[in-house]
């Protein structure tokens, strides 16, 4: 387990203790504090445990250190497993409803005696939830909306959760005798923001014996993370992992590998027009091969990899992220696909938080973490005063923070640069939380909505348009406010928003946090085509959050972004000039 996973487990323990009758508030807070403390530590958690360096860390007592060591060494915490086992399933299920916290879960459970989400839904329809102390009709309606949202997104998992599970299995399989090639496929390979299951394709020598194939399948189905086996054979085995994600492993001879990988990477929407193209050229394509059809006879066209498949169809190679039937087949046939941005193209980090607001680390620590990752600048954007729940800064706080940044920049003497910024709240009427003279004193401003999500689409859109028109708003942060698998975004006419951003030269970020990935990739290309610069921002609240940039790059690639489309591929001088020029024009 990595540090984030262990910290998440500690947070989960705190929540489960809250759901448990008779839990000590001090014990709950201890686990909450420990999760925060662990998230702020720099370095590999395995190494820290091995070297005994957790002892003495503020917020980590002896019992919790033992739990952390257990998680690192065994990939689980027995105390967490015990809490899950002893928590009524309906309480666990209610946790998935957007906006329903532990206190309300306990109230519903104690007062209504519901045992399933279906019973809770009926209780809402019978108007019984509205009459609970502290609830009311609005809360009841929100619960009904949340239940509908859950139904729409049932059995889906965040990209980062599925990726960790897949990589654990992939690493284990890669070490097995007889494995020639091994690749994750499916929606995970296409970098979809959520996935339903995991597909993996493995090849062995064409002449490999049944014993080799069976040994690989035995090894796969006996992995520690496998909870249940739902199918097992020499060419395909299916399991359910402890996380609940279903996973298929397909085993083929190496000569078949490119075709099978391509087929199971998908998407179905990509394959349908691709097959039509193949048929127009007297070919057929499936998971067994690409075949030339002459006089009713099929002849295999040998392909060493997926590039050969596309070339045989007189197309450029289509990157997995683009395989969604969004014009990529026509572009590949015209040799007009873009060269997609890569993580290595990024030069710096924008939209990050420190202990000045709700971040877990100091500005210096965040800067040093960026330097360690090869970045040359960091744009600090702590919350503004309206975000009091997140320790939002007053104008005086912002000025004092700027003085700290000046001192750090003097110390770095040009080898690294910190930009003064703010994640400034967009208020209900579309005005900004700081006056223009304060915003003008900053190097850049990220403007975001954090409140009043329930406005009508017209009101919410006008609110956003007014913010975009502000001359000191450089970047719109997490444009729709969605939390993947948690809550839908607020109602917004994104076409109007994109048009306005293009008109005013305002950037719209891809918020790289795996729970957001907002702007949605389906709109990213629209923004690109309007000439909007799109930064990939981690919205980092801790050192580890900086690494979320990689998830944002996945969405950038799905949105057809090239290096020149992404704002923070600019070097520091070019970035500073960009902000200066766009503000000067206004």
TrEMBL record:
Where does the record place the Helix-hairpin-helix DNA-binding motif class domain? Answer: 52-71, 92-111, 127-146
One Pfam family here: HHH_5
Q: Which GO terms describe its molecular function?
A: class I DNA-(apurinic or apyrimidinic site) endonuclease activity; DNA binding; DNA-directed DNA polymerase activity; exonuclease activity; phosphoric ester hydrolase activity; zinc ion binding
User: Where located?
Assistant: Cytoplasm
**Residue ranges annotated for the DNA-directed DNA polymerase X domain, each copy included:** 2-324
Catalysed conversion reaction: 2'-deoxyribonucleotide-(2'-deoxyribose 5'-phosphate)-2'-deoxyribonucleotide-DNA = a 3'-end 2'-deoxyribonucleotide-(2,3-dehydro-2,3-deoxyribose 5'-phosphate)-DNA + a 5'-end 5'-phospho-2'-deoxyribonucleoside-DNA + H(+); a 5'-end 2'-deoxyribose-2'-deoxyribonucleotide-DNA = (2E,4S)-4-hydroxypenten-2-al-5-phosphate + a 5'-end 5'-phospho-2'-deoxyribonucleoside-DNA + H(+); DNA(n) + a 2'-deoxyribonucleoside 5'-triphosphate = DNA(n+1) + diphosphate
User: TM spans, by residue?
Assistant: none
EC number in record: 2.7.7.7, 4.2.99.18
What's the protein here called? DNA polymerase beta
Q: Which organism is it from?
A: Dictyobacter kobayashii
